[in-house]
Design goal:
- The protein has 2 domains: 19-188, Rossmann fold (3-Layer(aba) Sandwich), CATH 3.40.50; 198-337, no CATH class.
- With 343 residues, it is an alpha/beta fold.
- The termini are far apart.
- The chain is 40% helix and 16% strand.
- It has 10 helices and 11 strands.
- The longest helix is centred in the C-terminal third of the chain and has 27 residues, at 251-277.
């Protein structure tokens, strides 16, 4: 296997700013993320973003805005954004760096995204292509082998992962450049919170990654919104604009679709800010509930998910971050809440 840094070649050098209990700040993590991207990504003035999150999940929207923010910091701009419905290989401009959306879905957990990733690897074979920071969780050996083979046949793939556990898996399984970097949403930097309206709010997943919330009767999630809400209206507009990309490769249509998608992401992240800011303290079992609370400087307890994805990221980057406590399960939440000043 070929790996492109001293860290990856087993020198023992640790590049995470969280190691050793040293103070962690959002600017420090953001600077570390951007420096890693500068080191590993080739210079391109244009990026094509693949796998836009065309839904109401605010965490994925934060990742997309993080991608655009990172591109700007690196002197590039996103010239086209496609989702799994509008993706086709002829939209991958020869002069634009193809980058696939960050997240926590490498390994087959979501079948349509797995198939899109295999298509992305096949269609970019022989040219530099980038997977933005992912967590790895294999559904089964078949999905692992499909990805391993596709990466091996690619030749110029750059695989960014966002936690130490995923890094170890990637180095073991993939013959490509592998780099450990912080979560891409940290490219957004610190953001102001809204005034709190209640002492505590609790976010509990309602999807397949939930570990099962316990002990709280009133919770929220952010994967749905009322039909008349700004997020739902923006989603309908983005879908309409994206549908035009399925019919034409026109640069004007690409601009329209990208603008509508960015608007959806911005509205979703504002909704996340409002939901999280409602509490003086937050309990969340979403990885980006934790990341956004960190960006908003909201004291919170983050509860591990079903697959250990949150623990892996927390132990790699944010364990020394001052606003958060980690709970291995919902049964441990009250104990961790008691450790937050004023609780």
């Amino acid at each position: 296997m070929t790996h492109g840094s001293a860290q990856q070649q087993g020198s023992g050098e640790e590049r995470s700013p969280a190691v050793g209990g040293s103070p962690v700040t959002v600017p420090k993590l953001r600077d570390h993320l951007l420096q890693e991207l500068r080191d590993v990504l080739p210079e391109h003035r244009a990026w094509t973003a693949v796998d836009f999150p065309m839904h109401l999940n605010c965490g994925d929207s934060a990742l997309y805005l993080g991608l655009e923010a990172a591109a700007r910091e690196l002197g590039a701009r996103v010239v086209r954004t496609v989702d799994r419905r509008s993706y086709r290989p002829e939209l991958l401009r020869a002069d634009a760096l193809p980058v696939c959306q960050a997240g926590g879905n490498w390994g087959g957990l979501y079948p349509t995204l797995h198939e899109l990733r295999l298509s992305f690897l096949r269609d970019t074979r022989g040219r530099v292509a980038v997977q933005m920071p992912q967590s790895i969780e294999y559904v089964d050996e078949r999905h692992r082998e499909e990805l391993r083979r596709a990466v091996g046949e690619h030749g110029r793939f750059i695989f960014l992962v966002r936690d130490r556990r995923s890094y170890d898996i990637a180095v073991r399984d993939y013959d490509c450049e592998v780099r450990l970097v912080p979560d891409l949403a940290l490219a957004l930097g610190n953001r102001p919170r809204r005034p709190a309206r209640t002492p505590l709010v609790v976010q509990a997943r309602t999807d397949r990654e939930t570990a099962g919330a316990e002990g709280f009767s009133k919770t929220f999630d952010w994967i749905a919104a009322p039909a008349t809400s700004p997020s739902s209206v923006a989603l309908r507009l983005a879908r309409r604009a994206n549908a035009q990309q399925r019919r034409t490769a026109s640069p004007q249509v690409a601009l329209l679709a990208r603008s509508a998608m960015r608007f959806l992401a911005e509205v979703n992240v504002r909704r996340a800010r409002d939901l999280l800011s409602a509490g003086e303290v937050v309990v969340t079992d979403r990885l980006h509930g934790h990341v956004l609370c960190t960006l908003l400087d909201i004291p919170h307890v983050v509860v591990d998910d079903k697959f250990g994805k949150i623990r892996a990221l927390y132990e790699t980057w944010t364990a020394a971050e001052r606003t958060s406590r980690f709970a291995a399960s919902w049964a441990d939440v009250q104990q961790e809440l008691a450790q937050i000043p004023g609780q």
